[in-house]
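Sequence in, structure out.
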Amino acid sequence: LNLDDFRRVNQRLGYRLGDQILRQVALRLKQLLRRSDSLARLAADEFGLIAETGEDAVDLIQIRNKLAHVVAEPFQLPGETLALSASVGLAVYPDGGSNAEQLLRHAGMALAVARKDVSSTLRIYRHPGPPGIDEALQLEGEFRHALRSNQLTI
């Protein structure tokens, strides 16, 4: 889950108040958890959730709706009310990955697509993912290696 345009919150209100809002978001998300679920702050405005659920689209959309609802609930600040929104990327075992690292990576890929798509804030990773993404990453890595090794001439 990524808080949409949260950097603007930090720019407008300052990092201290931004951090307080992030803590409130974390508390709200934590209230959704069952004992078997896990929540972590992965980056400045990004949270990861591991939850056991069914694989059908209804379950996944319900999860997304619950996440979006707790984030969209207004935050009361001194003298104003702040409304946030969030983008969600999901990866489901086993198609989304066979281990935690793969699931997290694929959820991140789905999140990146969701953040770019203004028509939807939810993306579910579908194997094998966006066409050519693995090949593009491999080609980029090979290119960087060749550049560092002075194997390229222009």
